[in-house]
What does this fold into?
Amino acid sequence: MPDGPSKKDIKSLLPAELAADFRKLGLPGYRAGQVFRWLGRGVVSFAEMSDLGKDLRQKLDELYCIPSLRMLRRQVSQADGTEKYLWALPDGESVETVLMRYKHGNSVCISSQVGCRMGCAFCASTIGGKVRDLTASEMLDEVLRTGLTSGAEISNIVLMGIGEPLDNFDNVMRFLALVNDPDGANIGMRHISLSTCGLVEAIDKLAGLHLQLTLSVSLHAPDDETRSRLMPVNAAYGVDELYAACERYFRVTGRRISFEYALVRGVNDTPWHAKLLAKRLRGTGSHVNLIRLNHVPERGLEPSDEETVRTFAEALSAGGVTVTVRRRMGSDIDAACGQLRRGRMRET
Ligand code: SAH
It folds into this structure.
């Protein structure tokens, strides 16, 4: 039956909230734990909760809904086993999730919003703007459904899909608490990375929570002029202000920041940019993740060539900054940056 808007989303509730709800309903304490564990296993209906009596299942079904994602498309890369999912949300919107298989474990890259309002010049996710935030249960279901459909055990999560996670702060924090819970998916904070375009106030707020996750900052340029060309957010928080927030974050949490840098031909990939970046980051212990721009047809920006990427990486290294060049996963299935949802939008 359809889940009416009057029903409460039970899957976004933290264990203590569920317990409080159940107490009000006059249910014994252990019931909340039972239901929470079922939800963490990805059940889509109360009928599946086989250790609950029929009356209780019916009562819960009247009060609550279990928002679940429905698979619209699954693509598996022939090159490296990367899997890309397009999901329908309960209201008909869609988001994508990517599963990456590495030697050290399987990682899911999840979306945090439907679309994005940050407007980065190279990104496919932002083309239609932001439609809405994802709820905590929808983000949780990206992880659960991906695990169940692929059969892969999920050990790592990266918040690097569609959307700006710090622009959906409360739901993302709730999602982190849910996915981290030992009775839920039980994924350790040290196995979770969150990527932001650099919302300074939210970075400070996050620091105050002292989570042990890895914060990635999408820098993409070491100077205001170049960065503003690529990222409108730079008009609100310039490079200096962003670096200062990153320093505060490190001081408060003890966790080093990793910087994302997509190389765009002729825009941010010159020796001058490499030298300035190295000068700014040397001695801070931060790490730079270089990636060749993924070409997005609508954007009119081109990836730097391999030789330029190598030269840029060497210049950073020589300048005393640790750097990795990110391997492109699933390039044969468009597994990059909002391209699948974008493809569907073009079709419909
Ligand atoms: N909004 C967050 C997280 C989502 S984007 C953020 O900005 O970090 C995830 C990463 O992919 C970011 O580093 C983003 O800048 C990068 N990205 C987006 N489009 C890209 C493209 N076409 N090529 C390479 N990287 C891209």
